[in-house]
Amino acid sequence: MRKKKMACNYLIISEDIVFSSIIQRYLLNSFSKPYIKTCNSFSSLKGLKDNENFDIILLDNSITGAANYEVITFLRHKKSITTPVIYFSNMEIDIEKARQKGANIFFKKPFVPTEVIKEINSLLN
User: Carries keyword Manganese (predicted)?
Assistant: First the structure.
């Protein structure tokens, strides 16, 4: 995979350490000097500064302290974040619900990390 020259900011929201590690590794290997921030609970997400900007948000479907889809609603309405959200879930039923709440792209688990990177490239271009 060719490294992208521009540095981007990524927010990974997941309490799953394996999920976060896989995404981080692929971001680091695919892009030049990415800034990666992780939140592993709803309370850590609430602690985000209002002026923090992210180019892509990668959201695992469940997180401690929030109901499914509550995180998307929180990002879109409380934090006024318009950044593209890539939503990951192991249930097909989540696709439409996640999109209704504001997710831009959906990946069913298990997912192919290189496909996620392709989608990120497409969003950034």
Answer: no
Lookup result for tokens 């800034």: 35
Residue 90 to residue 79: CA distance in whole angstroms = 26
3-state DSSP helix/strand/coil % of the chain, to nearest 5: 40, 20, 40
**CA-to-CA separations, 40 to 7, 16, 55, 96, 124, in angstroms, rounded:** 23, 8, 19, 24, 25
**Cα dihedral across residues 94, 100, 102, 107: positive or negative:** positive
Handedness of CA 110, 116, 117, 118 (dihedral sign): positive
pLDDT of 54-95, one tens digit each? 999 999 987 888 887 889 989 888 888 899 999 998 887 777
Residue 48, number of CB atoms within 10 A of its CB: 17
CA atoms lying within 13 Å on the CB side of residue 58: 27
Which residues are 36's β-sheet partners? 10
Distance, in Å, from the CA atom of 108 to the CA atom of 91, rounded to the nearest integer, reads: 7
